[in-house]
Design brief:
Layout: E1 4-6, H1 10-20, H2 26-44, E2 50-56, E3 61-67, E4 72-78, H3 85-89, E5 96-97, E6 99-104, E7 111-117, E8 126-130, E9 133-134, H4 138-149, E10 155-162, H5 164-173, E11 178-184, E12 187-188, E13 194-195, H6 201-206
Parallel strand pairs: 1-11, 4-5, 4-6, 4-8, 8-10, 9-10, 10-11
Antiparallel strand pairs: 2-3, 6-7, 12-13
Helix pairs in contact: 1-2
Bound molecules: uracil (URA).
Uracil binds next to helix 6.
Amino acid sequence: MGKCLVMDHPLVQHKVSLLRSKSTGTKEFKELVSEVSTLLCYEATRDLPTEEIEVETPVAIATTRVLSGRKLALVPILRAGLGMVDGMQALLPAAKVGHIGMYRNEETLEPVEYYCKLPADIAERDVMVLDPMLATGASACDAVALLKKNGVKNIKFISVIAAPEGVERLKKEHPDVDIYMAALDEKLDENGYIVPGLGDAGDRIFGTK
Ligand code: URA
């Protein structure tokens, strides 16, 4: 069974509170999503493998450690996941970025895939899937299934706010996937919005409403 981790760091909690407020405007919202993503990235990279090397400092030889595992890729689910890329890349500048486009059929609430462009060597990379809202879990599960179909073996799912329904579905369909979130909320409403949540993340990041 994969990890399922809710970040309880005070900075994360503070920034998520600001994100939730309906009086937070687009510019600040986008900056906060980025900052929370950087903090999530810090946590989600905690188990990356390292190896020992020797480095010559101006004073002596230091025995020290560097990252040693497989290369990484970030895969935002369009469109809200795009808001998380900058913040993740702040810590992972060498990660390649793939994109999966999905929209929600408003009647069935099921995702429809309309775009997929992944790095050519995606099967050799460990992948972090980015979506600020893990709501029903439908698009999360589809994105993970698509990555597995492309040969990806190790997948982490990174979200800002999750609903219990989404977490359960992702855990059930893809028990090998580690899930990281900044907050775990109460429930979904009848329109598939997370309660209390923060509204439509895409609209708030891009100012489309
Ligand atoms: N997507 C969003 O942007 N917000 C929600 O609350 C649920 C899904």
